Amino acid sequence: MAISEFKAKCLAVLETVRRTGEPVQVTKRGTPIAEIVPPSRPATEDRALGTAVGTGRIVGDVLEPVDAREWETLRA
Predict the structure, then answer these.
(1) Which of 48, 57, 65, 67 has its CA 20 to 30 A from that of 74?
(2) How far apart are CA 5 and CA 17, in angstroms?
(3) Residue-level pLDDT at 20
C-alpha cells in the first residue's frame, strides 16, 4: 500500500489489520518502508491482585493463638 493511501485511510487500515490479523506493507515509491502487524498477543489487563486466588489452603485453626514453639518455627 502506498504511503499516501495509508495516510488517507490510516484508521480503517489499522482496524482491518486488527480484525483480520493480516499485516499490511506500506511503501514509498515502491520501496517498503513499514509493515503494520497485529499485536503478538491479545491485550490483557495486567493484574497483581487475584492472581493467586485458590492456591492457598488453611492448615489448622486460624482463630487459636500460635504456641510459642510454633511461633519461633514460623519466624525462621
Answers:
(1) 48
(2) 15
(3) 94
How does pLDDT run across 46-68, given as a tens digit for each residue?
Answer: 667 777 888 888 877 778 887 78
Q: Please give the Cα distance from 4 to 14 (Å, whole number).
A: 15
Q: Cβ distance 61 to 51 under 8 Å?
A: no
Are the C-beta atoms of residues 23 and 35 closer than 8 Å to each other? yes
Is 15:39 a contact under the CB 8 Å cutoff?
Answer: no
CA-based torsion, 63, 68, 73, 76: positive or negative: positive
- C-alpha 75/C-alpha 70 separation (Å) is 9
State the fold for domain 1-38: YefM-like fold (3.40.1620)
Place of cell 492457598: 56
Which pLDDT band, with edges at 50, 70 and 90, does 42 fall under?
Answer: low
